[in-house]
Amino acid sequence: MDSGQSEESELTYLEGEIKCPYSWSTGEIAGAFLESLRDRGTILGAVCGGCGTVAVPPQSYCEVCGASMKDWSEVGPTGVVMSWARVTDHFQGAPAEAPFRFVLVRLAGADTSMLHLAPDDERIKIGAKVVPEFREERTGSITDIKWFVPES
Amino acid sequence: MARAAAVVGTGQTVCEHRREDVNLPEMAREAAIRALEDSGITPADIDAIVVGSASEVFEGINQPEQWIGPALGAPGAPLMRVQTGSTAGAAATIAAFYHVASGLFDVVLAVSYQKLSDGSPKCGLSAHNDPLWDREFASGDYGLVGLQSRKYMARHEPKVREEHGAMVAVKNRKNALKNPYAQLREEITIDDVMRSAPVASPIKLLDCGPSSSDGAAAMVIAEERRAKKMTSRPAWFAGVGTCSESPYAPHVDIAYPESCVRAAQLAYQMAWVYDPVRELDLAEVHDAFSFQELIWTEALGLCNPGEGGKMVESGITAMGGEFPINPSGGVLSSNPVGAAAMVRQLEAALQVMGKAGPHQVPGVNKTLAHSWGGAIQFSTVTIFSSRL
């Protein structure tokens, strides 16, 4: 269709931005995990009442057998790197200043791996032992652990 | 007992970094009209529509399906949208198949689209992460697939090397040269890939599909009697399988995802496929990142674990090889997320129908389409056959 407009004045898109605040429900289980992280600097796993699986991060149900979690068990602080990916260039929304590494960490006593960060250190490789570095000011978020560093 | 159903017509749009000439519903309409024309029917012949697109956050519009019925010229048709991350387009096709197989609908249109240029794909991907555990790390797909690729390579070292990822990228980009709908149509070399900018090592820029793609796809699915009337060579649904798992379950193995293994088993059982690499002629797999083609090849049982590298290095999966993978150029060449999953099925169906054009593989009777989505947790497998 010819609108009669010149080519220069063509408007083919509108700029915009959506900003929406959220307050995500943690529920009691994840809430207790985050509270323990904030107040005591300890990492808790949820223990399944059916099969004994220890889940970190925790939820109220077991993802292996479907039963309800019944206990807490402190895990870590030592963990093992299950995989890593190195980021050398900054990207929008990056969680740390590049270079850094994404890591999958399995904490001692846990049956699950969790996604976290590590410094760009050559010792961060599959099978390496790492420990969490906690922030001084903790707010009750998974980022209260700044990242995982090689166990010295 | 399920009724037989087949793909009788397809339509897709040329995938581009940014389509400025159309908005989202207009782009979806383009693919749908082509599918109707290809099937020789009009919107009035459609009994229902199933729409599949990945997260709204990609386009910044919640409920994008609001326009779709009218945009497709079928405002009164029953319509639903399915959303399973990047597999949404494939899930829409499978839901359309269920519609027809159930006996409730005779002719169903499946449509998928994604207009990534409308939004910020990277921010959008981070918004998929669990807000309690992963969101703050903004790993998106790049970080997660970096971890996946590293784990896979480390497990099979030295049988799988970083160069094997590069070989996949080179192969699929070469295939895309013959696909008029592909977005990235430039030949690259292994050296180009290996020297491209690091993204989340081992993933480099040329190990990734396009950063933004606008594209849509549509397929008409019909029951046996109508299908036979509409075309002499429909692509029959021989088997489908979908499976999901959790990002945090103890047994999760991102380098050999159980959701992919199980989806394939379900589809093979339904299609009576016992030895997939011998019984099937080719596959279209969801290679959003180069290493993933190797990982899916193994998880789909097309080779033994650790042999993905050999498959690409020996040329088995190249055009003209014994088992071509991604003759269309795959997702590495065009990635309109939700639609990319449907395009895998569309291409697999076209190969069976003998209508793939310049990248048609000769003598094709049975093909497989695969897709993955979410935090490597959703998988779909669809098998098409030239015979009922």
Task: Give a description of the structure.
The complex is a heterodimer of chains A (152) and B (388). Chain A has 152 residues and is mainly beta. Helices cover 9% and strands 33% of the residues of chain A. Chain A is built from one helix and eight strands; from the N terminus they run H-E-E-E-E-E-E-E-E. Chain A has a five-stranded antiparallel β-sheet with strand order 6-5-4-7-8, with no helix packed on it. A three-stranded antiparallel β-sheet of chain A has the order 2-1-3, covered by helices on one side. With 388 residues, chain B is an alpha/beta fold. Chain B has a domain of 136 residues: Thiolase/Chalcone synthase (Peroxisomal Thiolase, Chain A, domain 1). In chain B, helix 3 crosses helix 14 and helix 6 crosses helix 11. The model of chain B has no long low-confidence stretch (mean pLDDT 94). Classes of the chains: A mainly beta (152), B alpha/beta (388). The interface between A and B is large, with 42 and 41 residues.
Name the descriptors.
heterodimer, A: 152 residues, mainly beta, 5-stranded antiparallel sheet, 3-stranded antiparallel sheet, 9% helix, 33% strand, extended, B: 388 residues, alpha/beta, Peroxisomal Thiolase, Chain A, domain 1, 11 strands, 36% helix, globular
